[in-house]
Task: structure prediction
Amino acid sequence: MPTNSVKEQWIVFIHQLQDDICNALEIADGKSKFIEDVWQRPEGGGGKTRVIANGNVFEKGGVNTSIVYGDVTKTMQTQLNINGEKWFACGLSLVIHPTNPMVPTVHCNYRMFELYNEKEEVIDRWFGGGTDLTPYYLFDEDAVHFHKTYKNICDQYDDSFYPRFKKECDDYFVNTHRNNERRGIGGIFYDHQRPNENKSIEFWIDFAKSCGYGFIESYIPIVNKNKSLPYTPSQKYWQEIRRGRYVEFNLVHDRGTIFGLKTNGRTESILMSLPPTVRFDYNHIHSPNSEEEKLIKILSQPKEWCI
Amino acid sequence: MPTNSVKEQWIVFIHQLQDDICNALEIADGKSKFIEDVWQRPEGGGGKTRVIANGNVFEKGGVNTSIVYGDVTKTMQTQLNINGEKWFACGLSLVIHPTNPMVPTVHCNYRMFELYNEKEEVIDRWFGGGTDLTPYYLFDEDAVHFHKTYKNICDQYDDSFYPRFKKECDDYFVNTHRNNERRGIGGIFYDHQRPNENKSIEFWIDFAKSCGYGFIESYIPIVNKNKSLPYTPSQKYWQEIRRGRYVEFNLVHDRGTIFGLKTNGRTESILMSLPPTVRFDYNHIHSPNSEEEKLIKILSQPKEWCI
Result:
């Protein structure tokens, strides 16, 4: 596959995925529509940020794509350990915060990175991505459905993927300052996957497509199942406390967020990931033997959902 | 002054200041009382965390003291550039979040640090501290009163202090990822002040005492003046949006917070600084020529309040 067609194929996929995911979310919401902000990056490229707010189901959400490129800077060399003359990155990133605490928050991200020498020849290329689920109340059948969807997808490509990428996800989304509590119940996460003689460029693009569309298959049924469940003010309160932990992870630990904020990324697009309303209580304590405690136990000790 | 009496004098001051500030805040609140959590640090020392919540005036606040010590670790050597065998630190740190958006949030911190060689002799000692104000609606007379209080205190010690420490404060509390918007209207901030032939240990302890008690003089009158002012739901909304910026500064930029969270500090005491309820909207826009815009202009371009 000629170099340019790789980029083209990836860009077409990312934009199509953005359209299809936004469409699926709008149908599940039944009221609000995404609005789009197109932005330019002064150093090269730009993006399409799409946000939804105050829907029937979704209190706040963003489904963003970006195509960005430029010269390799000192910061990239030292902080990202990247060597080359020029770089290119394209990906989709989404975070959805539902109103109802019975519906989980979800995040996903799929991206391709290319590095070039001074002749603009590709000298390196890698793929990364993943999807993870953050419930406020844990329905075991939802966790099983979510993980099984990604296990089935992974198994079509390589039997080793699901266990490896599930573990990478559990190991990444961790609030180390909260006794290693996980942000949620995980999913899959992979990074720096380079095509080789066994796994071609097409293989990785195909895998990202399957995982990317897996979002709709994995998440929308959970939304539809739970979106009309009743909830109490104290359950909403708990959701807002847990959303505080989401903020803590994203601002203190998430490499992408911190790197973006410290290198003049588009702040509003990066921080669309933050939840709409949040509470920070001093030393919030949940009741013993409660649904809240059940969740915390799973977050402290990730579980195998596909056995 | 013998070494031990420096420590003792500082510790007595910090605890007395904690008592006196809590007392002044309880009187201004008129309803809620501080509750105290005493905690131990496994590696040495501990603290007294005092929190107030759901008062007439204060929605959430903490006035914490800690006395901590231990061996100089690799992390301290590399991240804090500290060389020595053992260290000691003692300070007071407070953050107060009022309910009413007409009453500003305030933060202050006063601390002493000592370093020892293997014979436990003091080889270095420095003082740091400051107080800064974060209004949601700007009353010029409050800003003038707050800054003048600290200028008057500073001027009793050294004419160069107020201009220098005011600038350090303006330069430190900056959301660089928000076009260098300041967290608030500043105040004073000083760090790494070492006693020398001109300015003795007593000088710096005395200065910290004057600044520490200056908190009561600078902040309480503003609370009493504004705590009964009416406000609208949309003004409360604006406060919660601005509190989001406070969260962003503390979690993304504040050196003390990040260092504490990454080095096994007591998370609940560190994060008592986060506001009780917060909103993160995508691309929140304030009205032109509004009170909100007036605030933002000052935050973008710090002003001289004492001229």
